Fold:
Amino acid sequence: SAVISQKPSRDICQRGTSLTIQCQVDSQVTMMFWYRQQPGQSLTLIATANQGSEATYESGFVIDKFPISRPNLTFSTLTVSNMSPEDSSIYLCSVETSGTIPDTQYFGPGTRLTVL
Amino acid sequence: AQSVTQLDSQVPVFEEAPVELRCNYSSSVSVYLFWYVQYPNQGLQLLLKYLSGSTLVKGINGFEAEFNKSQTSFHLRKPSVHISDTAEYFCARYNQGGKLIFGQGTELSVKP
Structure:
């Protein structure tokens, strides 16, 4: 398994601003992912954070809106840019430790974002 | 497209009663299935998983699930629930692209 922490745990932001969310893992992992959970909804994959290269985005998500960094095997950031109230969600980081399918994804506690 | 469907959005039960949360998946050659739980204001925690082998999978907190290939189901069960089991439960599977996809979730509400 893996122990994952996220910062901040929650934030309230103004429209038009940006927020960077950090994800830290207690061990080196092969795969890191970012998900969005809109109020009352299930989880939707935003992107796969690739170490040393650009993130791989899912359909409907773009780098300009959700830039992602992954400078090493234990850390990643997700930025929510130019926020609007529709961005109010829980953002979750997850990791896979083995890098092979099938594997288990472990999730961080999430960042609760409210945009006013 | 490969998918999972959770048939109940809400399941209210009384404490100490048995519960079943239903999950169906679209059939494919390889199926890897998971149940996660999300307690209020928390992240997701893995309850159990089916990768291969025995079709009856036991997880944490007294939960178990049965992989049923003929019914394409992976229902989650617990013989006696507690108030502390109140949470959102998500069924998930890997799709062909190696991505984890989630069902819509089932809200389990345990009442005294």
Q: What stands out?
A: The longest strand of chain A covers residues 89-96. Chain A has one domain: 23-110. Chain A has a mean pLDDT of 92. The two ends of chain A are 36 Å apart (CA to CA).
